[in-house]
């Protein structure tokens, strides 16, 4: 083999590379392995992997595509304006519709065929208003067994505006400073 | 149908094309939502929590959480007058059906709702060997259930115990901060139904979000700040006994 630039090769170089055929084979094996790795990697790693970081970027729209179960109170208020007006008069104005009525996105999508179930106020009201020493002191609580004896709360209270009318009038006559919406 | 060599040669490229669509995922559901415009967090106002369990029930229904597992749950703390260092914590059925009256009404009693803290430097995402759980550019810690192996590393790594293995899918599961709702402009299911406003979804990148005023005017804490997880679930009125 001719030495580059016409310089004589040293003895060590000559013995080390007297036949470069094995190097060619080695390079070919590495090149095939590299090509196989690149092809396999492209086939196995999802297209969106690394879009935002070390994860599949497509997982974000996939997670976001899940259908909703709770429509949100804005959706309810678009139709039920009478209830909105009622709620505005009482402290339940801050309570979203689906907090009591349950998930109703299906009803919001198709109001005609999906109707919400009627609620048992004896159970629904007690979830929040049953007395418990861990509840904040200002929160209205009753021991339902003593307060109503288990009868439905809407026998006396209107759930959307829970303060009883006669009670409010009696208090305003007595000129108490306690008003609706004040703790 | 017999799988002949000819048929296999036709079927394989067809399967490859189908798999490509699987990998590409579903198209963007909300085109007006920009990932980099948001940095989601949650505010929990402990003095407002009444332990009604509405959030737990709503979460289960919204996200189809298997029975006996909770993406969010409520704990009731009982701190007695003299054993302050040993608070008693209970969470019957995750607080899903509310709480029975306290056996001991003395001392200090209060509710603490818990959920994923959506840590900015989350330990759970760092241990995932395959990149199946991650912090999104809008600050939500998600699990890619199609990529998760179910190795349970993340379940062990979470200092807050917020993760579990879904027995149906055998993949890790956790609070997604209702990613399918917040990207559509809705609030999370738990915040939607919370009757007292004890839970508030907050976008830290939105300068108009009321959380900024709240954080300025209140003493707000995160759980286990010593873990330096960059937790983003903020607690107002957090008692020192809460673990």
**Helix content range of chain B:** 10-25%
Measured on Cα atoms, how large is the radius of gyration of chain B? 21 Å
Q: Identify the most extensive interface between protein chains.
A: A-B, 42 and 61 residues
CATH architecture classification of one domain in chain B: 2-Layer Sandwich
Unreliable parts of chain A: 175-183
Question: Which radius of gyration of chain A do the C-alpha atoms yield?
Answer: 38 Å
The amount of beta strand of chain B, in percent, is 15-25%
Please state the average pLDDT score of chain B: 91
User: What's the helix-strand series of chain B?
Assistant: HEHEEEHEEHEEHHEHEE
Adjacency order of strands in the biggest sheet of chain B: 9-1-11-10
Q: Which percent band covers the strand fraction of chain A?
A: under 5%
The total of helices of chain A stands at: 10
Shape of chain B: globular
Describe the structure.
The complex is a heterodimer of chains A (183) and B (243). Chain A is mainly alpha-helical and 183 residues long. Chain A has a domain at 4-64. Chain A has helices spanning 11-16, 21-44, 59-64, 73-77, 81-88, 97-101, 105-109, 121-129, 144-147, 165-173. The longest helix of chain A has 24 residues, at 21-44. Chain B has 243 residues and is of the alpha+beta class. Chain B has a domain at 37-120 and 174-236: Alpha-Beta Plaits. In chain B, 23% of the residues lie in helices and 18% in strands. Chain B has helices at residues 5-24, 54-63, 123-127, 153-157, 179-182, 189-193, 211-217; strands at 40-45, 73-79, 88-90, 108-114, 133-135, 141-143, 164-165, 172-173, 199-203, 220-221, 233-236. The interface between A and B is large, with 42 and 61 residues.
């Amino acid at each position: 083999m001719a030495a580059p630039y016409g310089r004589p090769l040293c003895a060590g170089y000559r013995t080390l590379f007297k036949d470069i055929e094995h190097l060619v084979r080695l390079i070919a094996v590495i090149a095939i392995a590299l090509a196989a790795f690149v092809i396999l990697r492209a086939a196995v790693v999802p297209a969106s992997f690394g879009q935002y970081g070390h994860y599949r970027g497509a997982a974000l729209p996939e997670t976001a595509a899940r259908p909703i179960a709770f429509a949100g109170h804005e959706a309810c208020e678009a139709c039920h304006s009478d209830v909105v007006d009622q709620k505005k008069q009482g402290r339940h104005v801050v309570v979203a519709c689906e907090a009591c009525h349950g998930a109703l996105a299906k009803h919001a999508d198709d109001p005609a065929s999906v109707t919400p179930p009627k609620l048992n106020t004896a159970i629904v009201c007690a979830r929040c208003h049953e007395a418990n020493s861990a509840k904040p002191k200002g929160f209205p609580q009753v021991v339902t067994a003593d307060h109503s004896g288990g009868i439905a709360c809407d026998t006396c209270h209107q759930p959307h505006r829970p303060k009883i009318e006669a009670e409010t009038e009696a208090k305003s006559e007595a000129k108490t400073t306690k008003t609706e919406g004040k703790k | 149908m017999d799988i002949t060599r000819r048929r296999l040669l036709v079927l394989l490229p067809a399967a490859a094309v189908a798999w490509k669509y699987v990998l590409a995922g579903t198209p963007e559901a909300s085109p007006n939502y920009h990932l980099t415009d948001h940095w989601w967090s949650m505010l929990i106002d402990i003095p407002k929590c009444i332990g009604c369990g509405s959030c737990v029930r709503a979460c289960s229904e919204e996200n189809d959480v298997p029975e006996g597992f909770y993406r969010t749950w409520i704990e009731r703390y009982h701190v007695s007058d003299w054993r302050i260092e040993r608070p008693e914590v209970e969470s019957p059925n995750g607080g899903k059906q509310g709480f029975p009256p306290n056996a001991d009404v003395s001392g200090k009693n209060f509710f603490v709702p818990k959920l994923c803290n959506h840590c900015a430097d989350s330990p759970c995402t760092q241990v995932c060997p395959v990149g199946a759980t991650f912090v999104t550019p809008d600050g939500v810690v998600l699990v890619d259930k199609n990529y998760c192996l179910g190795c349970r590393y993340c379940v062990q790594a979470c200092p807050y115990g917020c993760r579990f293995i879904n027995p149906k899918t055998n993949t890790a599961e956790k609070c997604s901060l209702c990613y399918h709702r917040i990207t559509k402009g809705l609030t999370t299911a738990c915040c939607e139904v919370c009757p007292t406003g004890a839970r508030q979804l907050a976008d830290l990148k939105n300068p108009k979000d009321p959380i900024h005023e709240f954080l300025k005017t209140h003493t707000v804490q995160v759980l286990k700040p010593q873990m330096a997880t960059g937790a983003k679930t903020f607690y107002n009125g957090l008692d020192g006994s809460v673990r």
